[in-house]
Amino acid sequence: MAEGGRKAFVCGHPVAHSRSPMIHSHWLQQFGVAGSYTAQDVAPGYLPNFLASFPERGFVGGNVTIPHKEAAFALVAQRDEAAELIGAVNTLWRQEGALHGGNTDAYGFAANLDEKVSCWAKSRSAVVLGAGGAARAVVFALQQRGIADVRIVNRTVERARDLSYRFRGGVTGHPWDALADLLPDADLLVNTTSLGMHGEDATVPNLENLPEHAIVTDIVYVPLQTPLLAAAAARGLKTVDGLGMLLHQAVPGFERWFGIRPTVMPELRSIIVADLETRA
Ligand code: ATR
């Protein structure tokens, strides 16, 4: 890596698992950009200090990951529209002397689907499993792309309803046991929960009621083929895994810090897939 170039970071706690350094280093190398992108482990108590002092340490900006996205939202001076509505910040930069925060998760979610199944945005209704921070980014993306009927289904129904109230009309909250009734006219099913990440296959919802044209996507990418995607594929439905969202969400940040808009190519995906397999 060349010395003296622009420096960016991903801050999280822990942060060693983050694949963002591999993604950005790949692009830096591809474009021959003198710069660096490194992981910074920042314990929660140090986040305010880290965000205030990163310019002095030579960084132009960076990404924010778990568990700092909501805290970073509160600490920035300016936010973009996505961050404002999602209530979380994953991308930081300085502009006119002020700390700015954006959220590129919704962009990454939509760009991944655009790449894999471009017809997805014609969906009239979508079911979103989960009502946490990840669901907020997904619902924002669905609304932004004009999907009129978005149904949030969550184990804790109050969280689903609370989340639906953050958005303008067309978003509703439902309990988990309403799923069977909500699936028959759903064009798109999105999982944002950690369901199946720990091998609890029994809790994967029954997909029998989904129409044949439905698209099923998971934002979880460890494992790459989640039990939900496996069940959907077994039924012959179109599936999209969550790795593309991770790759695409990195694009706007790289462009902002290093001045070149990268493209998500199969080679980059292969590098991250190989890393996921190594660490599995
Ligand atoms: P994130 O910010 O990554 O979305 P989160 O805020 O902790 O994380 O949200 C996790 C989501 O996964 C929640 O919707 C959670 O449901 P509850 O609100 O009822 O807790 C959901 N979730 C986690 N484990 C689950 C399980 N075994 N079955 C169903 N939903 C689960």
Unreliable residue stretches: none
The largest sheet, given as strand count, sense and whether it forms a barrel, is:
6 strands, mixed
Mean pLDDT: 95
The molecules bound to the chains, other than polymers, are:
2'-monophosphoadenosine-5'-diphosphate
Fraction in beta strands: 15-25%
Order of strands, main sheet, comes to: 2-1-3-5-6-4
Describe the protein:
Helix content is 38%, strand content 21%. By secondary structure, it is of the alpha/beta class. It has two domains: 6-103 and 249-279, Rossmann fold, CATH 3.40.50; 107-241, NAD(P)-binding Rossmann-like Domain (Rossmann fold, 3-Layer(aba) Sandwich), CATH 3.40.50.720. The longest helix has 16 residues, at 243-258. The radius of gyration is 19 Å and the shape is globular. 44% of the residues are buried. It binds 2'-monophosphoadenosine-5'-diphosphate. 2'-monophosphoadenosine-5'-diphosphate binds at residues 130-135, 154-156, 159, 192-195, 203.
Strand and helix layout:
Elements: E1 6-12, H1 20-31, E2 35-41, H2 47-53, E3 59-64, H3 69-75, E4 78-79, H4 81-86, E5 91-95, E6 98-102, H5 105-116, E7 125-129, H6 133-144, E8 149-154, H7 157-165, E9 171-175, H8 179-182, E10 188-191, E11 215-218, H9 227-234, E12 238-240, H10 243-258, H11 266-279
The structure holds 2'-monophosphoadenosine-5'-diphosphate.
2'-monophosphoadenosine-5'-diphosphate (ATR) binds next to helix 6.
